[in-house]
Structures
1.
Amino acid sequence: MARIIMHIDMNAFFAAVEQQSNPALRGVPVAVVGSQQRTIILTCSYEARAYGVKTGMTLYEARRKCPQLQLVAANNRLYAHVSAQIIRIFQDYTPLVEVFSVDEAFLDVSGSLGLFGSVRRIAYLIKSRIKIHLGLTCSVGIASNKLLAKLASEMHKPDGLTLIPPESVADLLKELPVGEICGIGRKTAGKLNRLGIFTCGQLGRYPVAKLKAQFGIVGERLALMGRGIDHSPVLSPEQEAEVKTVGHSMTLKQDISARDEIARFLLQLSEMVGRRARRYGVSGRTVTLTVRYADFSTFSRQQIQAEPICRSEELYQAALRILDRLLLTQPVRLLGVRLSNLQDRDQQLLLLPEERRRRQLTEALDQVNDRHGEFSVMSGSLLEVKGKGSHVISPAWRPAGIRNVSFS
């Protein structure tokens, strides 16, 4: 049986949730931003987009284009709560719901037509329920696979509904720029352009052997993408692959150079990464430190541990060792810490009393912070670090399961 896949993308999600929560913001240009001074536009309403305001703009750029722009600090807990409600609506129509991010998901409704009728009717039912119960709109794409469904949802926004029938795929892709396909980023598109490949039609006809010579094993997938072929299944939360890395980064309020200042932020990041790793029940052997200079040049260095770790103190010490090997040539704008090469955390009883005491202390602190919020209890060194980390929802966000992430 042919698959019928839907991709549902909420329209200007963060901004729309803010407008629904505060009637005074409805009908006016709104931008959602982080709470730090050096933040950027996280998303904006369609009223703001009409002035040319875009995601990723600095506040200065956005204000120049739209002086009357209303700024709202991001409320991640609210967005996560609303997203979970939306996902529950999806699950009323199919158990095969794959959360792609906090504001979009794939649904495999192949087995639901007998219950609800046509796929268009399912789409209209979902759109209607989201509008009536939450006051939000979404754009729906329908196709035979995830790649094309994602493309379809982008074609008519906001509040769109687009179906790509199989017989229309070749004509649609013939002149479509390769960069319009999900999974082909700017760098890959640039490499394809240098090969003389500008459209999906050209990509689909290009010799696979030459693509593999340029891109390795990815070259074969690129050839399939150029023809609109995607065999990947829609994975329910129970079927999703386990988390492969745990990381956090933050843009600093001002550029810093002093080692003790950098170390304090590394301590905060290590605590955030450690808590997430322990929440997932994993530990890792590879610690990576990422540094971005004031001129936006960025690099990463890593260290492999003798044994898997997940305690924040151990992460912090590893990050410090990497830092001490670096010769920083500019003030630092961004710092990041990541734990990878993961495995399930060893839950066996520890033999050494000191190790047992450390684990018990860590678990007690985690319980307090889980109950009362991130950094309710913390190292004294963190008291001088203002702010509480990330101001955006991680792409790893899920409403339930191992990839569930909650930010305070």
2.
Amino acid sequence: MAERPYVLLVAGEASGDLHGGHLVQALLQQRPDLAVIGVGGGQLRAAGMDVRIDVAELSAAGLVEIVASIPRHWRVMRWLKRRMDQQPPVAVVLVDYPGFNQLVARQAHRRGIPVFFYIAPQVWAWGRGRARRMAGFIDRLAVIFPFEEAIFNAYGRPFARYVGHPLLDGLRVSRPPLATRHLHGLSAEQPLLVVMPGSRRSEIRLLLPQLLRAAALLKADGWQAVLLRAPTVDEAFLCRAAGLASLPLPVIEGDAYNLMAAADVGLVSSGTATLEAALLGCPPVIVYRFSWLTYWLARLVIGRRSMGLPNVILGRAVFPELVQRDLRPDALVRQVQWLHANRGALEPELAQLRSRMGTPGASQRAAQELLNLLPAPPRCP
């Protein structure tokens, strides 16, 4: 009996697992004859993927931090190449995580396997020359911002398609803000801060101590605060990263969107979560800290431009960004209080951000682009 055709999928971190899960769900609705195998986490597993390597094996942030995880990345790459050689998939699907996944794309291209890349590397930040190179080894690129299509298609081959942002497919609030506060034992009167230190262990170690100090200062000034834990880390790790036996504020996992919608301000690690918070009406103070070498290399390439996604999409610095040595508790507190005091004035900016994100349905549109690359399903005799 012939083996079931399959797609080999690689997602490199929590956001890739989330968006990959929506993609696989949409794909299997239209092609239930396919199997999906590869690297992922709980969201992809729930969508029907056979997860052979957990996404935590690849999670790392920053150039220097990634170097420390090279042995793990090498082991995953070895498994992927062996799989492509011994049991070639009908396509390789790569979700975000551009540094590693572009290497996987090259390996698949050399073997003549169609490559579908979902959520493009941010070449508009890191240098557009990368777009020219990617056209040589990626068959179809599903991009999530409207301006990206022209950037990637400017070099002779129209391989990029704008599908919309997948956040809009899963950004759901299931209860009113006051009900969320009541559920978690939070006051309806006190301003609420959500602390989101990220999903990668390296960034959490660098950010969490300062974020907790800022939260403590705000609590002394009448605020309440909760920490939203990513599913890729456990509370014991958070305690170690903070250098504490226990954390000084409630830790919640699994109700992030409701809590963001119920919050007044967020202290949010740079990345997709900053966009989630802003879209849910929670203005973020965008924070990031890398090793000094990583930061120096980043600034060498992109200069002083904004790194926070809401600011990039709006084209101007609306939400505060605190980086490296500016990431001090007193500075964090000032920016939180500024956002809270100017909440009304920020509403038009939040509305404009929502309007620039397009319409829901990105996962379905991306799945259709992927289906266009695949061989037709076998006909029943």
3.
Amino acid sequence: MLAGKIYMHSLRQVLGNIGPALRISLVPTALQYGLMFAISRTSLPDPPALETAMRSGHPPLLPLAAITLVSIFCGTWIAVAWHRFVLLGEQPKGWVPTLMGERMLTYFGRSLLIVMAPIAVELALVVPLFLVSGAVGLVARPLAALVMTVGLFAFIGVLATVLFRLSTILPAAALGADSRLRAAWGATRGQNGTLLGLAALYVLSVLALTVPQAFFAEIGLLIFAVAWQVAAGWAAAMLLLSIFTTLYGHFVQNRALV
């Protein structure tokens, strides 16, 4: 099963390079969480007041925008360095990965293109799904609920497949190679089933990573729950970046899976 091979290759990519992975990601991750904490403590209200503001339609836009920008900057910093390490062999120098402004800006731009893909998918699938479900509901409400449930699962599957098919533009942007959407779509032609299976494996991995966090929170060990959340978030992000890297290496550069 090709999906399983890609998943295991990506997993070994992280586990076999823990040292470089930490040198690439530790400082940006610490900076991200440090700045997010500082912004939250100085510019955001306490959680109940924040929830009330969000519900009333008056969220604190500037602090939330600052947190978002910090996350994007640090995430892009890590992503570009990781793709270049795996695909070009660029070893991290010390504990601060090189800031490649042009490559990071291009990477961010290509990420926006991928984020826009769900909008087209939603218009193409979700709107007809609601129309069909509503029409069926006029005849049998239980059947309408079944149609909606099956349709939403199908929508999520199609969305995940589309995102994975387009994901090769991200490593390409990090390398300064051809990062057009058409090139990415063509490189993964005929791999819809593989990418759907790969997306399912990744989602199952993320769900498995959340179990210890829920356990720690349930028994009141909140410090351990927060620590696990940070570690699990790092692991999930690095695995996803490695999947993108593997897809680019295999389908675009014709590299073998080992």
4.
Amino acid sequence: MTKDLTKGKPMGLILSFGVPLLFGYLFQQLYNVVDTAIVGKTLGGSALASVGATSSINFLVVGFCTGICSGFAIPVARTFGAKKYAQLRRFVTCGTWLCLIFGALLTAGTTIFCWDILELMHTPSDIIVRSHQYILTIFAGLPAYFLYNYCAGVLRAMGDSRTPVIFLIAASLINIVLDVVFILAFHWDVFGAAFATVLAQLFAGLGCLVHMCRGFPILRMEPGDWRWNWGRAAEMCTMGLPMGLQYSITAIGSIMIQSAVNGLGTAYVTAVAAASKVFVFSACPFDAMGATMATYGGQNVGAQEWNRLHQGLRACVLLGAIYSAVCLLVLYFLADPLNMLFLDEASASLLPLARQYLLTGALFYFPLSLVNIIRFLIQGMGFSPLATFAGILEMVARGATSFLVPYFGFTAACFASPAAWILADIFLIAAYFHCHRHLVASAASPILPQT
């Protein structure tokens, strides 16, 4: 089930690899909506607020886990593209050790300081106990997140984008069923919702692990493959830590904008919440494009197919432009009914605000596509620190725009993310060509470092 992205027409390869990823992202977002609805409808508004109050810190920590595991998979993609399977196995085992180390440290730190984190975030006193029950369970289950994200990353690095999606879809269905059982039958309140999520994540991780061990002969480890190597560990951390920090930096920027919107009042918060849910669905193809280009870049750098990097970039940018135009057209005509999926009749008066927020972002979907495509391609090429710097620029742009909200109102909040995407693109486009020139020069001159 591996896919070699170093041979064949880039457009066809990108589509065949990316479409399964897209279905996975879409289904995961659908599950998140259903999961939220179950909590809100069965446990009430207070429970929903308790879970919602942890969303930013949840995204911060789980996003770091997702990013670091994706970074650990980049050397796997490069050695797979280079057909160096002995090195590939050693990178896989080294990544396993690193996941155990980082998983233990992150789990211990977040569970010990969980209550302090919630107090630091000014979580309301009437919901902080429930919020603590929920997020503490998620933090205790972080090893399950590491298991799935690392195994899924390794599978994608070898060209198998379908298996992680299959297990993710199965886990999402299991999660929904367990939500109903734990909340309605066992009366476990928000703890039941969190425990269901962790168990479903564990199922997906174990499924990917079993498939890796049984389905890929090149991953049949030899005793020497498990030997610790500081050089390999350093190389993987150079890839993984910047990607993990990138997710966290993005979360910080989002928190800054959310804080600014909170200052405008409940009506604006509600409108942004509804429009954001529509945005998450409509932006799923950009996430799939990014994940695809990370693997594409890693494999082709490993095979030293420098021209194919340009070809793949052009093909994916074309896809991004086409989708951005079509999506803007669809949202222009359907923004109101789509927003009403998340608003009740009493909140219908907020539709103009939700529409403004959604369409302002949609006007800049093409810059967003470039952010995902180029940033993840650079990461796959082995230049994660540069991609992380682009994330810092996004955070700076969102932070600067958030300071304008008190003066220019809701319109400034609407333009916060577009400003972040444009600033990141200015840097990323120049960075990509710099990285490409560096790789070509490195291959021609062994004296230069490879990354």
